[in-house]
Amino acid sequence: MRVSSLVVVALLASLSAATAKAQPGSSPHVDPLPSWNETARKQAVIDFVNRVTDRDGDDYVPPAQRIAVFDNDGTLWPEAPLPFQVEFVFEELKRRAPQEPKLAADPMVQAALAGDVKKLLAGKHYDGLMRILALTHTGITTDEFNARVETWRETTRHPRFQKAYTDLTYQPMQELLKYLRDNGFETFIVSGGGADFMRVWSEAVYGIPPQNVVGSTALTKFEFRDGKPVLIKTMDQAFVDDKDGKPVGIHQFIGRRPIACFGNSDGDQAMLEYTTIGNPLPSFGMLVHHTDAEREYAYDAHPPASGTLVTALAAAPANGWNVVDMKTDWKQIWGTDTMEAANKVSDLLVGNWLAEDIENRGVVDRAHTTLEIADDGTASGNTSVNRYSGKAKISGDKIELGRLVMTRRAGPQSLMDQETRFMAALAKVTRYRIGDDGLLYLIDAEGNEIVRFSKIED
Amino acid sequence: MRVSSLVVVALLASLSAATAKAQPGSSPHVDPLPSWNETARKQAVIDFVNRVTDRDGDDYVPPAQRIAVFDNDGTLWPEAPLPFQVEFVFEELKRRAPQEPKLAADPMVQAALAGDVKKLLAGKHYDGLMRILALTHTGITTDEFNARVETWRETTRHPRFQKAYTDLTYQPMQELLKYLRDNGFETFIVSGGGADFMRVWSEAVYGIPPQNVVGSTALTKFEFRDGKPVLIKTMDQAFVDDKDGKPVGIHQFIGRRPIACFGNSDGDQAMLEYTTIGNPLPSFGMLVHHTDAEREYAYDAHPPASGTLVTALAAAPANGWNVVDMKTDWKQIWGTDTMEAANKVSDLLVGNWLAEDIENRGVVDRAHTTLEIADDGTASGNTSVNRYSGKAKISGDKIELGRLVMTRRAGPQSLMDQETRFMAALAKVTRYRIGDDGLLYLIDAEGNEIVRFSKIED
Questions:
Q1: A253 touches chain B (CB under 8 A)
Q2: SUPFAM superfamilies of this UniProt entry (chains A, B) (predicted)?
């Protein structure tokens, strides 16, 4: 039962927006939170920090007691379209399947490779997801596991933002982590994600060392291999650090009640309660509400995968939890590097592409329908009969090809029909993705892959 | 099986002496380890710290990687005559039994109250000890448990040293903790003892905050009581942080391999191996060997209760582990406060005492055989026939009454016989204890309680 809820960990997490107690605050000379707009949420954080660090005030809290806990998925980085650890699992299976026929033959591995999340979640105990978690998280040494997570970090990219996953952290929360540490707080991650998974990069990414990462865990097994001690990962005594498990994990791993807690979903509600209700010390709770579909994602009751936010959002006003409205409270969501990357046309997209399929009807044999993308966003190509060109609007995985100018020659009816379908399809395109097969897919607003291209090598 | 091994935790632990790699070391202006004699063990520690902190050297280790782990029982404080957490359990049962008839009626509680450790350890799974651990460690909130540990700290005294248990830490190890922290190490306790038990006082006693305490744990249960969130202690998913459990616990709670490890028993062998064998970073291992019966205790294969040291001692030379010989390597074992207290005649002992029993033969009715102890150590009294006096040699729980001067009157045969037995008994006395019943017991070298006194109130 515990083990089955690891699924919950992997596929549930959350976020939200704020009831802030606006208070007149001091004006630091250098703004510690430049990515936050000047709203009540920013002021609430600053006021709290000022209160607990004022040695002469009634609310002074000694540094040793300044424990701040942060959920990770949806609070410090995104959890869409899937929690990043699930993306890791999928990548691992993709990488290993070609070399491991037995693994590749597993029906749940096949479901994962096909992206069939529904099948993985079928059954009361999410047997499929459990199986692929076990296949990728056990039976290897902790060093081997760490190396695999490192490889994933270095080689894979988020499908929408085309950045390494660990580069996709929220800039305002990064500033908050640093601001709290600069004020004598000790910052901890308390996440449903796997502790071993996060500890590989938490120090480099958040400045949070492994010993300050509380997550889902299971026992390892100590043994000698080739005369050297190793720890083998197992699923024994699996502990799920989610929902009620969060305060339990906080007590077990930290042993001290936090005074500040940051989350984004119903899975964080218990640790928010534990932090803020009946705490003899001054305390602070905050929920990040994902309200920004343009820059990130927008969801609460119906998240893309994990992060349901319903009960915690309802409980926020009564408990004085501050709810961040991502869209209005955050001036900037990503770090400057990430934003530059998102605005830059991906190197993968730049080049000349040959249409292979248009709206599931194939292409006319021997016709040559193309799309060329230049690194300044210029889009041009051939319909087999006419040439077209224009400026594509590209940002991250978004692409719009609406305003294209075309020559007006006539040709055979079959090619003219295809031209009409092709140009109509291009006009509907909102997103693209480059598949692992190297093919370019143009996607409409409903998520349908309406044109497929292969790369024309120079 | 796991749960049953909690016993192992409570009743096993260990210590030892050293194979040091003596190296010429630098001479700091202020000696950071003044309680250590100038032997190879002290030099080995200093050399290691110099190596890993030298930015220009090949063995430099960045501060984030300077993880040092310390066993507690037998390494930072004693574990005799019983591990201190077991003493806490006994005290808790003593305190609660009078108010809780059901508890008092429990056969294992009765065994504990009678000090019948054998009965508690009977059976394959040490059922008795498990039972009293559960009775004292579960079903209460973490706050309630913490308060009980605090009370124990404040109100009970070690039977031999007559000091609060948490004042009985080893001065050389306290200096070592500080020395390592001053050199950028982060110090952790990794103990078979209960994490919750140690975290109550670890920061005050060792400067080690709760989040740096790895110990035996079990899950808590999150719930609301009177509208406030609490965590109820249970025995669910009990994890025993001993033997192979120590590296497992280090990985689970710290997530980073230590470079320095300090232990005293076979229970620490696995974490010493994990720290020093095949570690890509420079590493250091040390065992404290209890060789000093005079100032503390002497044991290895046959400890008073916990702390068997056999296999780890045998493995030390091959692994380059430094073995501290407590008797020769440590100039001073206790802090100055503790030593002063040990040399002072206990207030409890000072006063006039009436003999109730002499060598299990009672005392002659209406006879008045006494022992008066003054706070300067003067011992005097009455045998019913004669008066005697002299200077007792008192230190901690040790007392010697060898050189007494007596008047030479004669009296009835029964009283003269008793006088002979009484004075012979006094000559054999090596230790004393004040029982919870307020009675004074004088003890011979074999541990027999040979004279029992009650206090004569002024």
A1: yes
A2: HAD-like
CATH number belonging to domain B344-455: 2.40.128.270
Q: Round to the nearest angstrom and report the end-to-end CA distance of chain B.
A: 55
Sign of the CA dihedral running A404, A409, A410, A412: negative
Q: Tell me which chain A residues have a C-beta less than 8 angstroms from the C-beta of B247.
A: 222, 229, 231
Q: Residue A278: left (phi > 0), alpha (psi -120 to 50), or beta?
A: left
What letter represents residue A13's amino acid? A
Helix axes B127-137, B84-96, angle to 10 degrees: 70
Contact status of B184 with chain A (Cβ, < 8 Å): no
Q: What tens digit of pLDDT does each residue of A34-50 get? A: 999 999 999 999 999 99
Distance (Å, rounded) from C-alpha B332 to C-alpha B172? 7
- CA dist A286 and A330 (Å) reads 14
Q: Are A353 and A455 in contact (CB under 8 A)?
A: yes
For A345-455, CATH number? 2.40.128.270
C-alpha–C-alpha distance, residues A368 and A379, integer Å:
16
B256 lies within 8 A of chain A by CB: yes
Q: What is the pLDDT at residue B24?
A: 40
DSSP SS3 for A76: coil
Rounded-to-integer distance, Cα A76 and Cα A153, Å: 16
Structure-model confidence comparison of residues B431 and B7, the more confident one? B431
Strand partners, A362: none
Q: Is the pLDDT of residue A370 over 80?
A: yes
Q: Do A248 and B231 touch (CB under 8 A)?
A: yes
Q: Is the CB of residue B176 less than 8 Å from the CB of residue B262?
A: yes
Short-list A162, A203, A216, CA closest to A339: A162
Tokens of residue A394, six digits = 């590209």
CA-based end-to-end distance of chain A = 55
Scanning every residue of chain B, which has its alpha carbon at the shortest distance from the alpha carbon of A142? B251
* ipTM for the complex shown: 0.74
Strand ranges of the sheet holding B440-444, from the earlier edge strand across to the other edge: B393-395, B398-400, B429-434, B440-444, B449-455, B351-358, B370-373, B378-382, B387-391, B404-406
With beta carbons less than 8 A apart as the criterion, state whether B397 and B159 touch: yes
- Give the CATH superfamily of B6-81+161-338: HAD superfamily/HAD-like (3.40.50.1000)
What are the chain A neighbours of B221 within 8 Å (beta carbons)?
244, 248
Give the fold, CATH level 3, of A3-81+161-340. Answer: Rossmann fold (3.40.50)
Q: Across the interface, do B229 and A270 touch by the CB < 8 Å criterion?
A: yes
Domain boundaries, chain A: 3-81+161-340, 345-455
Helix pair A269-276, A311-319: axis angle to 10 deg: 10
Each residue's pLDDT tens digit, B141-191: 999 999 999 999 999 999 999 899 999 999 999 999 999 999 999 999 999
Residue A205, strand partner residues = none
Greater confidence, A407 or B25? A407
